[in-house]
Amino acid sequence: MDTLDIKAIREDFPILKREVNGKPLVYLDNGATTQKPKAVIDAILNYYTDMNSNVHRGVHYLSQISTDAFEVTRRKVQEFINAKHDFEIIITKGTTDSINLVATCYGQKFISEGDEVIISAMEHHSNIVPWQMVCESKGAKLKVIPMSEAGELDMDVYKSLLNPKTKIVSVNYVSNALGTINPIKEIIELAHANNTPVLIDAAQAVQHIKIDVQELDVDFLAFSGHKMYGPTGVGVLYGKEEWLNKMPPYQGGGDMIKDVTFEKTTYNELPFKFEAGTPNIEAGIALNAAIDYINELGIDNIKKYEDELLNYATEKLLEIEGLRIIGTAKEKSSVISFVVEGTHPYDIGVLLDKLGIAVRTGHHCAQPVMEQFQIPGTVRASLAIYNTKEEVDALVAGVKRAVTMLV
Amino acid sequence: MTINEIQDELIEDFSFYQDWMEKYEFIIQLGKELPLIEESNRIDQYIIKGCQSKVWLVPELKDDKLFFTADSDAIITKGLVSLMVKVLSGHTAKEIVDSDLYFIDQIGLKEHLSPTRANGLLSMVKQMKLYAIALQAKAL
């Protein structure tokens, strides 16, 4: 399939047919969460109707089929990001959970007083705060790669920050606030030349860009199911076998143990060592359907279409007087953040909502980004595969109308 | 006018507007008309932080009555703030503490008081009542 049939794709998403405030829904908040295709909704329904049972436990039939379905997802994820082994795929609650796992477990073993952790100036709070917490408890220092006015990382400063004390680099692939696609291949290569592992927050990338963890040679990769047409409450942490084996377990509980006595507990092997307790089974199983859905459309086809839509939206929005796009990197993906002179993002968001248009307003959990640009926040339109040029036109008309009312 | 009389008047004012956008045009108008607070009062002491828009609220006591002036960096929030000020400003502490702000619901703006709106408005209403409670406590 070379050109995607967007009209047919829209038919796959039941929610897109609904109205909001008496207007057809225009959903442009995909960076926060995407809508779900019928296949994913059916998978959740089917799980509870036909196979509900705890995984990795019982010898009985239902437990067997739910475990099998859950493990199918693990292998599907492995294939999707081209991991070497299925046990390198840890099923988590989401990106935040994945990052916290690495910060806690890697931090516990490998970060000591005086060490340094590198993040970037355009991180989501979930890739700032876990590292701050580790640095605080260990007496380590957080170093930040600065960015330009366009929202591109300063790679020269990055190079100068790397030193023997640098214990880990953790940056996002795509910025949720600006849409910048970061040069992660180069970031990883430079870190490895310094013997430093790298975590990539791919929450805003995995649904738009083909990811091959072996080709990238990335050490850890984190993403969420719900931003890639899958259910909420499930995410992935990919980790290289060698690192995952060296790290202590995260939480204690069922599933993560081999033997428990009051004197000593031995831990289960990968991936279960990091999966204490009953997971979000239905979400885990339904994630499989989401990845199938992306695979059927073809991630490269998705990217091509979304890039086209992003260019169209950028061009059209810039026709609005006083509108300034925040984040003008050369390489961008599916996110347009903007402010309009003389208006507050919140006001525009409220009025767009009344027109049935869902955007995100505010700081997008990236307050340091807003601080750099000296703005209280932005209006953010984030695109997905089911969005159309007509919807972009509706957004542009809505913003124009809001600005007329506000200024 | 009592707090409830003011509320009833506002409900009547809003009943003229059928369409959502008209309603918001009215709120924006109110926001634009609300006198700005003095720059010297736009300080942290008076700030009520929403996640997205900021509200400044300054209380003042005159003849046993509490008067409020307020401001916001977002115009719709400012319009909503102006409604709250209209309703609660110029009353005694007891009247403010005992008030039931039913007008918000009736004019269809309840969503703005939901914790998820993050506009600081819910905190502002709480703060207005807290000032009144503090004043009552002082008088005892």
Describe the structure.
The complex is a heterodimer of chains A (407) and B (140). Chain A has 407 residues and is an alpha/beta fold. Helix content of chain A is 40%, strand content 17%. Chain A has a seven-stranded mixed beta sheet, sandwiched between helices. Chain A is globular. The model of chain A has no long low-confidence stretch (mean pLDDT 96). Chain B is an alpha+beta fold and 140 residues long. In chain B, helix 2 crosses helix 3. Chain B is globular. Classes of the chains: A alpha/beta (407), B alpha+beta (140). At the A-B interface, helix 12 and helix 14 of A face helix 2 and helix 3 of B.
Task: State the gist of this model.
The complex is a heterodimer of chains A (407) and B (140). Chain A is α/β, with parallel strands linked by helices and 407 residues long. Chain A is built from 14 helices and 17 strands.
Q: Topology of this protein?
A:
The complex is a heterodimer of chains A (407) and B (140).
Chain A lengths: L5 H6 L7 E2 L2 E2 L1 E2 L10 H14 L9 H20 L8 E4 L2 H16 L5 E5 L8 H10 L2 E5 L9 H7 L4 E7 L11 H10 L4 E4 L11 H4 L3 E5 L10 E5 L1 H6 L10 E4 L4 E3 L13 H17 L1 H19 L5 E4 L8 E6 L4 H10 L2 E2 L1 E3 L4 H7 L4 E5 L6 H18 L1
Parallel strand pairs in A: 3-15, 5-6, 5-7, 7-8, 8-9
Antiparallel strand pairs in A: 1-2, 4-10, 9-10, 11-12, 13-14, 14-17, 16-17
Chain B lengths: L2 H13 L4 H14 L13 E3 L4 E9 L2 E8 L2 H14 L2 E2 H6 L4 H4 L14 H19 L1
Antiparallel strand pairs in B: 1-2, 2-3, 3-4
